[in-house]
Specification:
With 428 residues, the protein is mainly alpha-helical. It is built from 16 helices and four strands.
Length: 428
Amino acid sequence: MTLLDITLIIVRVAFGAFVPLSFIAVCVWMERRGAAFFQDRSGPNRANICGFRAGGLVQNLADAVKLIFKEDVIANHIKHKFYFVLAPLITFMTAVVSFAAIPFADTLVLGSKEYIMQAVPMDLGILWFLAIAGFAVYGIILAGWASHNKYGMLGGLRAAAQVISYEIPMGLAIISLLVCYETVNLSEMARFQGQLLFGFIPMWGIIIQPLGFIIFIVAAFAEANRTPFDLAEGESELVAGFHVEYSAMKFALFFMGEYVAMFTSSAIIVTLYFGGYQIPWFPTETLLKYAVPISLLLMVLVPVFGKIFTGWIRKNNVSHYDRPNDPRVREGEVYIKLVWAIVILTEICFFFYLVFASGGAADNLLVAFLQICTFLVKTAFMCFVYVWVRWTIPRFRYDQLQKLGWQTLLPLSLLNIIVTSAIVVALS
């Protein structure tokens, strides 16, 4: 094994581990700012370090410090302390590990070797995600049972019933996709979506399986225990449900696990239905063929984007009332300098690529970088959809939740399989 092989293995594993963890901060910030936007209020904008608020991101750091140093209480009535401690670890780890099989770029070819761009390269693909994601409910059930609390027990029971109700239509929606893709390998699914339907429509999963997409995304919301399917927590009737007895970092693990699960669900939805890492009308072969023109275009677009973004910062990063020597203006000027430093560094990288490294391995690395960025942008947008739905739709009643799963989604998913199979057989 060469040094390059070891380096790429480390990079892939690091991406699979640290990107979901990093998105916890992004998703929490997005949740708070999104809630503030929908409710017409400011959101987090007070916590700061030497006057720097980072648009509210410093609030995440303040919360982390608070939870780390908060007293970790385990009540005397809790008899099964081992399972009580194990439950949040199961919920958090399953959310992180389920991301391991999701491809974040096309296979990277360097010389005569190919490197699959997954944290853990495997052919199981979607089966791995279903197996690991389904295992997460054991953490919620254990938490409710081990808490020896009626609210916690009810939350755990609700979670178990909810997962059973919605994993079935989710699995059936995936069967319809497998009929179209003819593989369970997520990399091959993403590669399939690089084709064009009728020569101009990207052959994404949402185009060829619109009903399956609706079924899958509703089931994914339910699996992630997100509003309007957060009956396992139900603050209005269960106080906090399965995690009512948890505090400090054990509560934080549930909290972080929810956002990692949200990121992973978004990533799998993007991979199955929105082309994954594919850039519309620019499959890997096209990107490699036109790597130099694309680089020149990006050299023009990056400064334009920097100009627009810094203008937005200058317009919005000011106090809502007149202040002499406004500290937010000074803060904004620092961010503007940082943005232009990144723009200049990016331009230098593109310049060196065009002058010294274009062609060969550098083209493959450039394409992989563009596809990773595309994958992350799509996933971030899908995370925003989770936030959007949470602050738009009220929580279902429990009977409505079960009725939707068994009487609506299940028949629709079976109908979708029949229709998809008939069309595939007719066209073949």
